[in-house]
Here is the input.
Amino acid sequence: MVGGPDATKSAAAIRHIQFEDLGLFEPVLTAAGYKVTYLDLDGDGLSTLDALEPDLLIVLGGPVGVYESEAYPWLAEERRILTARLAKGRPTLGICLGAQQIAAALGAEVEPMGHKEIGFGPISLTDTGRVGPLRHLEGIPVLHWHGDAFCIPDGAANLGATGLCATQGFSIGQNILALQFHPEVDASAGIERWLTGHAVELAASGIDPRELRAQAQSITTDMRVPAQRMMREWVSSIG
Here is the structure.
């Protein structure tokens, strides 16, 4: 658990693999008075989680698809939790797989794109995206790492796109935010855990890790400031 002595709110983060954590977002949550708890897949964390209890639920990324529930039964359990939570409009954030899980829980299709989007690049924001928290990320090279994409659920606002993926994020009101990309990753700290942890995927996709490492090292913009401003603004708006 992470949180100062004055932490009064709870944030539960479902973490599928150890290195895809809250990253830059964790200190923002702590400063906002949240006690952060990670729920990992082994053990009974998901089965015992009260879907409505955490003040904020965050579902992080992972290297599987929402349609693989037979091989990975926790995917269905996670969607059950999300379905109950989203029905009540409880504050929920999804990143990458987490965003796809939110979309699937809302009845939207999630399918392979037929290509990978792996590397750093900016998001082209929609008009809605430009007036919300994501405006802090305009022109910022964020990390992309996925091969699936979601359709925008009914009633949700499309927030942005890239040339390789037309659906990079959506929101429903103030409390529900789903992001296909990874603004939580601090490229200035290095991405070796990602390159090593996803080595098989990179090799299968014909992507040279040296190119991704060079991309990360070439980024001169301090991504930490806009990413944390985005998260801070969103967290201050939920309730």
Observations:
- The radius of gyration is 17 Å.
- The mean pLDDT is 95.
- The chain has nine helices and ten strands.
